[in-house]
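Intended use. Records such as the Helix-turn-helix domain-containing protein entry shown here are meant for training and evaluating sequence-to-structure methods. They are not intended to support clinical decisions.
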Amino acid sequence: MPIPLRADFDAAALRAAAQQTKDAAQARRLLALAAVYDGASRTEAARLGGVTLQIVRDWVLRFNAEGSAGLVDRKAPGQVSRLNDIHRVALAAVLESGPRPAIHGVVRWRLVALSRCLMTRRV
């Protein structure tokens, strides 16, 4: 049994939203869901959207929870920072004080020298 779509929208409203948006991916998703409102199967909507049936299910869940705004691409979370707040403060202090030639072997910080110092933990 497929997850039902929200009752407060219909195919015409989704097509109007697709026409107004400047986000092509959101428009494609809205049009695929509009086809479902018109009676198309989820498989047909997946074919129209160029995706798998599982992705259409994900679109339905996001659309039901957030409306058409839920179909906008979100920023990927990315990699977790390797530096915590203590590390950032220590690094800023080292950068502000400048290198010490006797310790760091350089008279001014360049990225390669700073990277080497960080990797050998001479900071």
